[in-house]
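Contributing: when you submit paired examples, paste them exactly as shown. First protein:
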Amino acid sequence: MTAVAPSVRPLGTRTRTLTVVYADGARGRGPLTMGQANMIRCILRDEPEQINIHDVWPVPPETALDAVTDALRLLALRHDALRTTFPRSPGPAHREQRVAAEGSFEITVLDHTDLSVEPARYAEQVAQAARSERFRLDRDFPLRITVLLVGGAPRFVALAASHAATDGSALAVLREEWLALLAGESLPPVTAFTPLDLAAEEAAPAGRRKSAASLKYWERVLRTGPQAMFAEPGAVGSENVQRRLTLRSLRGGRALARTAERTGALPSTVLLSAWCVLVAHRAGQTSCVAAVPTSNRFTTRLARSVAPVSQDALLFLDVQVPSFDALLRKAWGAGLNAYRHSQFDAVALWEMIGSVTSERGSHFARDVVFNDISSLPTTFAPVVARETEAPDLELELGPEQVLPTRLLSFVHTTTPLLHLSLWTDAQLFPGTAAEGFLTGLVKLLEASAEADIPLDTLTEVTGVRPPTRPAGWQQVDGCWVSPADVADGLAAALGGLPVHVTTGSVDGQDPDSRTLTAFIASGDVSLTPGRVHAALMETLSGNPGRLAPHRYVIVQDPPARTDLTSAWLSRNILMEGTGRDRTM
C-alpha cells in the first residue's frame, strides 16, 4: 500500500484532544543525573528531530480507547521520570529536576473512517513527525502521544519522547508495562532506580570515582585512536540525510548461534566482533572505535529504569589480529572495559574532549554507533514468534532521517532471527552498498560458524571492500589524513595565504610514525603559531581528512616553488612552534 506523509491526513479523519489527569504521585526535587545533564545539553544544542526519540505501540485487538488512556495515566503515576520537569537555572545550564505529585497531559486522537494506507507505516510516520517540535523542559509532559483509530477502534499509539526523560531502553520498558496493563495484569512495585535515586548514587564518593575513571579512559582513546572512523573523500559534512535499512534473517540468527557454540563466546560478543571488524575493514582502519549507548543497563537497578540512563560506552577494539577467533578473545575484554567506563559527568567529558582535540589538533567524530537492545525486555521492533513466519534473508528500506553519524545500527533480536536496523551515510554507502554491508555481515557469520576465518580474507568472504583513497593520503598520528586537504583548509582559514604541508618521521621513532609540518608565508599579516592553529581548528568539523600539523613554520614570502619542502626551508623563518603552547 502507498504510505502517506504525516502532514497529510487521509480523507475522513477526525481529530480531537483528550486531557488525562493524574494525582497522588510521589513528589521530589534534586540535582540532575549525568544522563539527564548530557541529554539536556544535546536538546539545547541540536535540532529537535535529531535529539527527540519516537516509538509506535500496536494496540491489542478489542481494546477500548478508555483502556488505552487509563494505562497511560497509570504509567505517569508509576514512573517519576514522566512527571519530571527541569526548571530554568541562572546561567546557561539546567541544574535541577522536579517531580510533580499531580498534573495532566494531552492525547491527540486521530479517528479514520477508513485507512487506505498501510497502518503500521502510517503510525511510524506520525510518530516521527511528532519529533520535529521541541519539548519545553520546564513545563511539558515528556511524551507527545497520538492514538490512531480506524472505525472508532484504537490501532496504534504513536509517540515522540523527550530524551531528557527517556531513552530507547526506557521506552521499551514503558511499552512492555503498558501492554501488561491492557492485558489486565498487575505490575510489580518499581525497584529500579528513579532519576533522583540515580542522581544520589552518582553524587556519592564511589560515583564520583567511577566518573573520573571514565574520563581517563575516554581521554586515552581520544588521544590515540582515529579521530574519525570514516576518513576518505566521501566523508564530508557532520550531518547527513540517511535512510534506514532493516535486515531480518533466519540465516543470520542460525549462523550467529553456531559461531557462538563453536567458539564458546557469547552471541552478543560474536555479533559485536563481526560488526566491528567489518566496519574497520570497510573504513580501512586498524581499529574500530564505536559508541555503544546501551552499556549502562547491565546492572539490576538500572536494567528497567525509566530515565535517560544510557550514556555512550566508547569501544576501542584493535582488529590487528590474524583471525576472527583471535578477535573474539579480545572483543569481550574491550567491550567490558568500555562498559565499565560509560558513566561520567557529561559537562566534564565535553570540556575534556575540547582540550584534548585542541592539543592533538583533531576533531573527534562520533561516526559509528552500535546499539544492541536485543537483551532488553522488549524492543522497538516486533519480535517474530515462529521461525516459519520469518524470512531467510530480507532487506527493507525505510524512512530517511538527518543524523550526525556515518553508520548507526540498532540490534533488535538475535535469536531465532537476526533483526537489525542500519542507517548509513549515502555518500559513503551509495546505491546498494548498504545492502552489501548487511549481507556481508551475514556471510561473515556463516563462514565463522564453520571455521576460524583469516581476517585478510574479509573481502573475499563478505564482498565488502575497503576504501580506495587517492594518492597522498597517509596515516598520521593514528588518523588517515590528506596533507593537501590540510593545506587547503589552512589556506582558506588564513584568507588565502600561501601554505605548504608536508609529512615526515620523528627522529628516533618508528619510521611509520609520521608528523605534519605546515609552512605559511605571512606577507604583511601578523601571525603566530597559536593564531594559525586556532584558525585551522575551526575548519576540522566535517572534514575528517584534516588533522592539525604538529608544527607551524611562518616565513615572510613564499618560495618560487611552493610545492617543494626544500624551497620553503631555504626561506628566512620568522616564527615556528606547535601552536598548542608558547611561541618558539
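Second protein:
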Amino acid sequence: MSLIGGIRPPIAVLAALLLTLAGITALVLGRVEDAGVPKAVLTSQQHFAEDGAVALRASIDESVTDVTRSAALFSAGQPVSGDAVLDKLGSTYQKWMGTTVVDIRTGKLVAARGETVPLTSVDLSSLKGEDGPTPRMLRLRNGEVRLLSFGLLTWPGKPQLLLVASRNLKFPGISLGQFRSIAVVDSEGAILSSDGTAEPESARGSTDRKDIKASTKELTDFAQRAARKAQQDPRGSKEPGSGGYPGVSGSLLGDRSVAGYATLAAADPGDTTTAGGLGLSVVAMVKVTERSGGTQSPVFGLAAGGALLLVGALAVAVLLGTVQRPLIRLFLESRRLTRGDLTRPVTVPGYGEAHRIGGALERLRRQLLGESAEATGPAERPSGLRRVGTPALLAVCAVLLLAWSAPLMLLFNRADNTADVPRQLVNDQRERTDTLSDRVRRALNEGDADLQSVASLIGDKTSPEAMAEVLAHTYNENRRYRSLYVVDPHGEIQAREGKEPKVIKSDRVSGRPLRLLGRGGKEPVVVAAAEIPGRNGAQLVGEFRVEFFNALVTRPGLGVVRIVDDRHRIIAGNTGFLAFQSLPDQHLKDLVAAGAQRLGKKPRPSGVLYRDNGVRIAAAAPFSGSGSAESLHWSVVSWQPTGRLAIPEYDAQNRTVLAGLLGAAAAVACLGWLHIVVARPLSTLADRAEALAAGDRKPVLFPQHHDEVGAVTRSLELIRQQLQDQNRRQPRRTPSPQPTAQPSPPEQYTRN
C-alpha cells in the first residue's frame, strides 16, 4: 500500500494529531499564570532602554560631528583667534560643558570657555594626524565622566591648534516620569551617569533613606547584569527572525523593580559610529506597582482537552466503522472473487459507494457462475440511510471536530473591553511619546544650528565656488536635508547642493528660522533658513527630508506614530499616511488639543486608555523646550491596540484561538486528504463497477493509486478479463436454417 494514499494513513495521522492537540490544550490552556509582572511590561522597559540608547548615541555622534565639522569650516576660512572660535561655537551650540583651544606643539592653552577641560591625562603629541584624534572618555576626580571630542584647526603658516569640547553622558530629552531611573553603564558594569535616582541626602526619614538605598543597590545589580549580557553578539541575543533593535537589548526582573537594557549601536546593522565604539549600555529601571494574577482555572484546559479526546474518538470511530472497515471488506471480497472462490455470496456493506460496489461484486460473482448480466438484474439503488456516501460521512466528522474548534476560536476566553491593562503600559506610552517629541524638536534645532554655523562661516567674502564646496561638505555629512542652497534677498539661488528646491522663489527668504510649507500639496516641506552676515540679507536655506522625520519616529512597541502640526494635520509618521491628513478619530484630536494646553510654564504630555470600539492606548506630546522648533507648535501622537500586547488576558485568548485553529486545521487537512485519496476515487469506482456488472466489458479499469481503492480496481479488472474469457469459451449458437419456400407447380389449363 502507498504511504501517502489509502484509508489508514489519514485516519492514523488525524488520531495522532488530535491526541497531541488534546495534551497540549490541557497543558497550555490549563496553565495558571503566576502572579508577577506581565511580559508586556518587561518588553516596554526594553523598548524604553532602546529609546534612551538611540537618543544618547545620536547625541554623542552629533556632538562629535559638530566639533569636527566646525573645525573643518574654520580651517577652510581665514585664520582667527582661539577666542573667536570658541565665541562663535558657543553662540551656535549650547551642548558642551567646556571648550578649549590648545597649541598641539607646545601644549599651551590658547582659549577656554566653561568648565576646565581635563587635558592633563591626554598625550597631545599623539593627537596629530590627518583625520585628527578620536573621542575618548575621562573620569574626573569627583567621579563624573566626560567625553572629549577633538577637532584640528589648521591654517597655512600658523601653528596647528586643537579644538577640544567636553560633555557629560547625560541623556538628552528622556522623559522618565515617576519611579523610573536610567543610567549609562560601561563594559565593566560601572555606572557612569544616572538620572531619576534620589541622593541619600534628600531623604526625609529613615523609610526614605532605606528605600533610596534599596533602589541604588538594585540599579547597581541591574547595571552589572546588563554589562554581562552586552558582551554577546547582537545576532544571538534575539529570537530568530525578531529583528528590531540592531544592538543587544533585553529586560531584567528584580525583587521590586524591572529594567530594560540596550547597548549603543548604529542606526543600521553593520555600520560603526563613535558612540557605538565606546562600549556603553543604557539601563532603565522602574518600580513595579502592579502585579498580574492568574487569568483562569486549570479546569478549563483539562475540560477542553478531555472534550477533544471524546470528540476525536467519536470522529475516528465513525471513520473506522463506516469508511475504513467497509473498504477493507470490499478489498478482501474482490480478491476472493479473483481467486475463484465463488461459493459464498459477497458481503455487501450497508452505506454509500461501498454498498454500490458490494452489490456490483455480487452480481459479477453470479455472472462468473454462468448467469447472464440480464439475469442478475439491474443495479440496486440504495434508499434512506444507505444513500449516505463517504463525502457525507467525512462532513459529519468535520462537523464534530469543528464543533470543538469553533467555540474556542469565537467564544471562550475572550478578552473584552474589561481586560486589565497595567497602568505602567499607559505611562510608558506617554513617556516614550514625549521622548520622541523631544527627539524631533532637538533634530529641528540641530538642523537650524547647523545652518547658523555654516552661514556665519560663509561670510561676505566667500566665492560661489567656495560656497558650493561648503554646501557639498555640509550636505554629505547630514542626512536630514534634501536640498541646501544660498539665495540672495530676492530669492535667486546663488549656489545649491542636493535636489531641486520645492520652495518657490517668493517664499525662499523669510525672517523665521523654521517654517512648514506645502499645505494643500502632496508632501510637506519643512524649511530652515539662516542669514549670512555681510551679504545684505542673503540666506542659507535647507529643506528637510520627510524620510528623516519618518525615521525619527520609527520605534518598536509604540504602534502608530504621527507628527502633527498646530492644526492637527499629519506631517510625518512611521507608517503610510497622506500629507496634511487629519487624525483618524476625534479622540486623538482631543488628546492632542489637551496636551497642547499649558500647565504652568509649558505643555505636558498625556496618555489615555480608551475602551470604546476596542481597547487601545494613546498618548500625545507637544514640543516643549527651548529652541526655534518650539515656535512650530508641533506634537507627536501615538496609539496602539492592547490586543497586540503580552497581557495575560490576551495571551489566554490567543492561546485559546490557536488551539481552535490547530484543531480546525487538523480536521481540514486529514479529512481533505481522505476526500482526495478515498472519497472521490471510490465514487468513480462505484460507477465503473456498476457499469461492469451491467455488461459493459469494453472499458479497461486502471487503478490510480496503490491503495485499497486501487486494489479493488485491479480485482475488478481481473474479473472483467475472466468474464471476457468465459464468453469466448462458450460455443456459439448458430440459428437453424429456415425451410425455403418451394415454387408452386404451374397451373394446368385444360381446353374444353
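If you have annotations for the second protein, write them as plain sentences, like these:
The chain is about 40% helix and 15% strand.
The two ends are 100 Å apart (CA to CA).
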